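LLM class flavin-dependent oxidoreductase
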Amino acid sequence: MEIGIGLPSTIPGTDGPTIIEWAGESDERGFQSLGIADRVVWDSYDPIAVLGAVAAATGNARLTTTVLVTPHRGNGALLAKQLASIDQLSLGRLTVGLAVGAVNSDFEATGRDFEQRGGNQDQLIEELREVWRGVPRPGGVIGPPPAQPEGPPLLIGGYGRPAIRRVAQYGGGW
């Protein structure tokens, strides 16, 4: 059995050093994965930034987004670079959980269209995969490549038929 633990990044008032210490101790105590949630309108840390720091503070546990709300992140090429960088820094320990999001206030705060989030996620996932395969963009190839040959595993979160379709089409799991 594998057991993971969530990082305290969404607990209001938690300072950065506490999150890094929590990650290091959890890794040392044998937890197999460290998870981080994604919210914009909340007193919480950005999961991309935290996982970059946690990659340096740990050496064994998988680093997992639980889940990364991709439609309000907007730019698939930039997100692909950020995630590939974390995958490299962690020596291939990244797992990316993705979802369309269900909290309208996060979309309002980022200026993204809540009603179009499903289509936006499909497009973004396709961009992630293209960048990770080294497909040239108009300005050139985006690097670094992920440490894991096909890119980090994608887990698709959500409810209903669209989420199930995304799992079948893009994801390594639900």
